[in-house]
Amino acid sequence: EADIYQTPRYLVIGTGKKITLECSQTMGHDKMYWYQQDPGMELHLIHYSYGVNSTEKGDLSSESTVSRIRTEHFPLTLESARPSHTSQYLCASSAYRNTGELFFGEGSRLTVL
Amino acid sequence: GNSVTQMEGPVTLSEEAFLTINCTYTATGYPSLFWYVQYPGEGLQLLLKATKADDKGSNKGFEATYRKETTSFHLEKGSVQVSDSAVYFCALSETHNAGNMLTFGGGTRLMVKP
């Protein structure tokens, strides 16, 4: 059973608001990821981290930012939300030298009006 | 670069029908291959994997065989159930300096009708 949690599960906010999507894992995994999932289901890697104080941008350019101050915590922040940010955001983690197995949270569905 | 191509959905089947979801890949080295499943309202979870050529991954009645000669990893199940309705993602992983990174296919939605 994976132990990775995302909050909130659903969020509806107005344009211009600052939002933070929380992601926490209790497995002690070094690597963590944020994926954006569009309505067509395709997954796009937007951020990842190899460990504390490490953050990298993924394949898809994103206006969001991330931080990794603690191993278990990898929050994603949007300083000023826009309707184009409306999407499902999935957080995942993996052990450092894993064979490609990622553990996913249940996702945060963001709607910006 | 690496890429994964899946058959487009949705795939609609009746209960107990045979399922095949095609997946082909392009990779520069010798990747590991995976199938992930996403049930409605949930995140993805690993369904099965294969780490080298000719390996067969299996789980919950699903199977996929790593075919290096055809660069394929097709997902099959002999008799689907309504509870198998979900989105299925094929993925590959190659080792980079700091560990493995996954490349996902576009996903295939499966709908099983009673």
Task: Report on the architecture of this protein.
The complex is a heterodimer of chains A (113) and B (114). Chain A has 113 residues and is mostly beta strands. Chain A is built from no helices and 11 strands. Chain A is globular, with a radius of gyration of 13 Å. Chain A starts with a strand and ends with a strand. Chain B contains no helices and 12 strands. In chain B, strands 2, 5, 6, 10, 11 and 12 form a 6-stranded mixed beta sheet that branches. At the A-B interface, strand 5, strand 9 and strand 10 of A face strand 5, strand 6, strand 10 and strand 11 of B.
Sheet-strand content of chain B, in percent, reads: over 45%
What is the beta-strand fraction of chain A?
A: over 45%
Portion in helices of chain B: under 10%
Shape of chain B: globular
Indicate the multimeric state: heterodimer
User: What is the mean predicted local confidence, pLDDT of chain B?
Assistant: 92
Number of strands of chain A: 11
| Secondary-structure element string of chain B | EEEEEEEEEEEE
Structural class of chain A: mainly beta
Task: Please specify the SSE layout and strand pairing.
The complex is a heterodimer of chains A (113) and B (114).
Chain A: E1 4-7, E2 10-13, E3 19-25, E4 31-37, E5 43-49, E6 56-57, E7 65-66, E8 76-78, E9 87-94, E10 103-104, E11 108-112
Chain B: E1 3-6, E2 11-14, E3 19-21, E4 23-26, E5 32-38, E6 44-50, E7 56-59, E8 62-65, E9 75-77, E10 86-96, E11 99-104, E12 108-113
Parallel strand pairs in B: 2-12
Antiparallel strand pairs in B: 1-4, 3-9, 5-6, 5-10, 7-8, 8-9, 10-11, 10-12
Summarize the structure.
The complex is a heterodimer of chains A (113) and B (114). By secondary structure, chain A is an all-beta fold.
List keywords for this structure.
heterodimer; A: 113 residues; mainly beta; 7-stranded mixed sheet; 4-stranded antiparallel sheet; B: 114 residues; 6-stranded mixed sheet; 12 strands; globular
